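QA checklist item 7 of 12: single-chain prediction sanity check.
[x] sequence parsed
[x] length recorded as 168
[x] structure emitted
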Amino acid sequence: MTKLDTSGKQAKIIYLGIGSNLGNKKDNIEKAKSLLIENNINLISVSSYYNTPSWPNPKNPDFINIVVKAKCTHEPEILLGICKSIESKLGRKKTPKNSPRECDIDIIDFDGKIRRNGLVLPHKMMHLRNFVLIPLFEIEKNWYHPITKTNIKKLIFSLPNKDIRSIK
């Protein structure tokens, strides 16, 4: 039997990566979580905080990152709009790619969907990022990449040793 929420829509399992490297980083992440909840995104589990050097420029402030597992009834584009709105509310401005930011929310996985046009699912770089894989493993040890069908442990062990060591 398919699980429906109170509106009758099917709830989907999603994974979001949330990061910050400007301002009060932990506070920014906590506010982002609250705003997700206000937008009917129900958090199921939340990873610990992870500290990682900024990429590609390690001279920028370090990031704090988490991954959350949640349920929502939104379609992927609506969810993306909500994430962008939250980033903006928390002070994110249009800046060059990979610039420091108060809040960054990425859709890591949306109910195992695979999309290659428009909003790409799963996130196209997630399998290369220690700050996504390690917190994701903490909350979902049996997660598999929807495209490659590779389990999370194998993805982590495929990272360079320096990437595994650089996350705290």
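[x] summary fact logged: The radius of gyration is 15 Å.
[ ] second reviewer sign-off
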